[in-house]
Amino acid sequence: MRSIATFKEEKLALRFWNYLQGEEIESALEEDGKDAWAIWVIDEEKIPSAIQFSEKFKLNPEDPKFNSSKKVEAKSNHKSVINRDLKSRFKSYNLREKWSKQDRAPGMISLSIIIISVAVFLLSGMGKNQDIVSKFLISEKIDGTLSEVLEGQVWRVVTPIFLHFGIFHILFNMFWLHDLGSQIEKRKGSRFIALFVLITAIISNFAQFQFAGPAFGGMSGVVYALFGYVWIKGRFDPGDGLFIHQTTALIMLGWFCLCFVIPNFGIANWAHAGGLLTGSAWGYISAIRWNRS
């Protein structure tokens, strides 16, 4: 869902919303502040058409072609009744409230990653079984060459994300993977989140390996990439519907900084940094591309 137009007059917003319904473009009308009304289009494939309609509508909102379609008018023979019906349905519509009450069920890919992570956590004895842990490390050697990867074990550039070394470690990462990953997956689709996790896992793992060696594991690099994407995307392209509360953002950034400040804290700080930078850049580029289009 994306915001495609804002009107200062409720009458015009209702008129344009009526027109979109007649064009079979599913949309919602949100009271955005005291003196503004926003039109949100549900189906992203129909957003370009809806934007074209909105541009034409704003040039000449009284054009007869924007009169309510027969399908909408058929609900009532009197315009005032239609407007009362629309007002009662949409006047209380609020995007942040919608997200706060959104379906909390995880997306398919997000859930699959959580299941794999928990399974590895249990099979590795909560990260204490070195025989199993070593198979998921980016490298079992400390020569700095990633020799196993070069020999064909390419999965090692990803598998460290499934390792966790304590209850708090896995609970923290799985909570945010569920919250942020599912939010993105439901907005962008399973293919997008799968590609996002794959790319950010590789980048964050390489960053940690480059600066601190192969002895690390955890989903936190990916989690910070998810956070960075939602945070930046929400700031520069709020119409995309991704949202993270400001307090949550401050907590995530505060934890990020704290882990860097405290020495020998046993945290994969460079994975955090690689993930955060990658996710933030991804979100910013995506937002700028949309705004320019």
Task: Give the topology.
Layout: E1 2-7, H1 10-22, E2 27-31, E3 37-41, H2 47-59, H3 70-73, H4 79-90, H5 95-100, H6 108-123, H7 130-136, H8 147-150, H9 167-188, H10 190-212, H11 220-236, H12 246-261, H13 269-292
Antiparallel strand pairs: 1-3, 2-3
Amino-to-carboxy terminus distance: 17 Å
Number of domains: 2
The H/E string reads EHEEHHHHHHHHHHHH
CATH H-tier superfamily of the largest domain: Rhomboid-like
Mean pLDDT: 83
Q: What would the CATH topology of the largest domain be?
A: Rhomboid-like fold
Helix content: 55-70%
What's the main sheet like?
Answer: 3 strands, antiparallel
Under CATH at level 1, the class of the largest domain stands as Mainly Alpha
Helical stretch count?
Answer: 13
State Rg.
Answer: 24 Å
Strand order of the main beta sheet, please?
1-3-2
Which structural class matches the secondary elements? mainly alpha
Number of strands: 3
Overall CATH architecture of the largest domain: Up-down Bundle
Poorly predicted regions: 70-95
Shape: elongated
Tell me the β content.
Answer: 5-15%
